[in-house]
Amino acid sequence: MGAFSEGTPCWADVLLPDLRAGKRFYGELFDWTFEEQDGGSGLLGEQRAAPGSPAGPAPYTTAYRDGRRVAALAPKGDGRMPTTWNVYLATPDAVAAARRVTEAGGLVITDPVPLTGDVAVVAQAADPGGAVFSLWEAGRRHGFERQGEPGSFCWTEVYTRDKDRVDAFYETVFGFQVHDLDDASVDFRVWSPAGTTAGDENAVGGRSVITDAFPAAMPAHFLVYFSVADCDETAARAAELGGRVNEPPFDTPYGRIALIADDQGAVFAVLAEPKAA
């Protein structure tokens, strides 16, 4: 795929304590194949060299579906790191975007750093509510080569308890055009890239709210979605592979969704779009 508009999710990777187990789980669940790269090519890969970690570079493993890049798996160099999926938002200038993050009340966790081989310049940040995300300034790679098809990324949304500050943050940092869902029972704001018309046809992500219906200890976070052909079959298969179905499949106007934790605890969602009538 070509260049991504600023603020558009363009890459995702998962930080795991057991890379071999991760390859087995996601390979069988999404029909992914894998390729290891020396030196890493993603921010979580860069973080592997934590104090006390084994000497030498650990492999940052790119995942492919039908020969096209869809995501990556990175080993945890430090047990204190979270086991989690991480989403990268595109920017033409990671240094400028990191500066806007700070000015808008967020936190730059990792300053912009070039990846080996001029792959990209990446940084990691947190919004004012504490949700962590990354920035991606494309070099040789723009990010996903496949998305919106089975076995690939299709959506992301941030969950927060501080919607007013978080809404202002993302709209300032990325210039999102926004609209709120016309459903009084759901507090959800949809993001469209700057220069486009706010609406589902241009949507790249969104903001949800952590309400009292969620566990009190749940932190603010981004949730990454993967497209699947059959939500129920995928959820059942994830359980067979040692994962956990946190939220059984349910229907929405956008398709059938399930919330899943892999066999090491990293949480993601799967979405099967409505079948054509």
Overview of this protein structure:
This protein is an alpha+beta fold. It has a domain at 152-272: 2,3-Dihydroxybiphenyl 1,2-Dioxygenase, domain 1 (Roll). It is 17% helix and 39% strand. It contains five helices and 16 strands. The protein has helices spanning 19-30, 43-46, 94-103, 163-174, 231-240, and strands at residues 9-16, 33-37, 60-65, 68-75, 84-90, 107-114, 120-126, 132-138, 152-160, 177-180, 189-192, 205-209, 221-227, 244-252, 255-261, 267-272. The strands form two sheets. An eight-stranded mixed β-sheet has the order 2-3-4-1-5-8-7-6. An eight-stranded mixed β-sheet has the order 10-11-12-9-13-16-15-14, with helices on one face. The longest helix has 12 residues, at 19-30. The two termini are 30 Å apart. The model is unreliable at 38-57 (pLDDT under 50).
What number is the mean pLDDT?
A: 90
Provide the spatial order of strands within the biggest beta sheet: 2-3-4-1-5-8-7-6
The CATH class of one domain turns out to be: Alpha Beta
Looking at the overall shape, the CATH architecture of one domain is: Roll
Overall outline: globular
GO molecular function: hydrolase activity
Protein name: Hydrolase
Keywords: Hydrolase
InterPro entries: Anthracycline_SecMetBiosynth, Glyas_Bleomycin-R_OHBP_Dase, Glyas_Fos-R_dOase_dom, VOC_core
